[in-house]
Amino acid sequence: MIDQITHLLGYEFAQNAVIAGLLVAVVAGLVSRFVVARNMSFAVHALAELGFTGAAGFVLIGLSPVLGLLTGSLLTAVFIATLGQRIRERDAIVGVVMAFGLGLGVLFITLYTRYASEAFAILFGAITAVSRGDLLLLGAMAVIVIVGLGILYRPLTFASVDPVVAEARGVPVRLISIVFLLLLAAAVAEAVQVVGVLLILTLLITPGATAERLTAHPGRATLASVGVALLATLGGIGLALATTIPVSFFVTTIAFACYLGARFGPLSRGAR
Question: What b/e string do you get for 166-175 counting C-beta neighbours within 10 Å, with b at 16 or more?
């Protein structure tokens, strides 16, 4: 198996897949930590599905589905951030926007007279089909998200732990929430390249949930989240290259195994 993987890594498509996986895993691991801390799992689901609507719309007018995915996710983030701040209100807004967006996506696919293979690939992931041009876009998105999180890290952590106290201490909680949602939208657009819309929760929730079970320290939890995302993504790509099984299956399986190990294993906070 190792010889087969080494052989395939000599091809450009495999090299592109590994580089894309590395970029996606780092971004997803960093963002996942805050997604779990801020109870935004439902929002991740909405951003991914409305991103698919954007991809379908861009395919319909002859533009890149990746750009459509990013556009759809960003517009959804703006709607959620503008219309809902409290958790209960935000979930209701997410449900309303997601329902409308999915209907719009079905319309776009129906109007497209040819087989929309690029749009459907976004549903399930197509990491082995990433081109050099896609890598440039993924790299630019990764830099934006990483730099943005670096700037926001301390106030975002404070606002995630106790938003009421943070606001009382002068932290611009609402502005931070809006910016984080925009960064989350970019992270969703990246992670979809690996696992697709239908499995997006794997990379943007499982690493953070796993890290939360290992440590309560914010810095160590962030590193643990990135580590889980890297293991699941790169391990999944390697196993997929050696078999005929899709990458998404291996990514989800490895991530789930990490979560079970963190929850019930000797390193879990509960066990200690």
Answer: beeeebebee
Walking along the chain (272 residues) 10 residues at a time, the average pLDDT comes out as: 64 81 89 87 82 82 80 83 62 74 79 65 71 80 90 87 81 85 84 73 89 86 92 89 83 92 72 49
3-state secondary structure 113-132: CCCCHHHHHHHHCCHHHCCH
Within a domain: residue 270? no
Helices (H), 169-217: 173-195, 201-214
Other beta carbons within 10 angstroms of residue 214's beta carbon come to 23
Reported pTM: 0.81
Query: What is the dihedral sign for C-alpha 110, 115, 118, 123?
Result: positive
Q: How many domains does the chain have?
A: 1
What is the distance between the alpha carbons of residues 77 and 79, in angstroms, rounded to a whole number? 5
Task: Classify residue 269: in a domain, yes or no.
Answer: no
- Where helices occur in 84-172 by DSSP H, the ranges are 87-111, 117-124, 132-161, 163-168
pLDDT at 164: 79
* CATH number of the domain enclosing 215: 1.10.3470.10
Q: What is the pLDDT of residue 185?
A: 86
| CA-based R_g, the chain, Å | 18
With left for phi above 0 and alpha for psi between -120 and 50, is residue 245 left, alpha or beta? beta
Tell me which residue range forms the domain holding 231. 2-264
Going by the DSSP 8-state scheme, the letter that residue 199 receives in this structure is: G
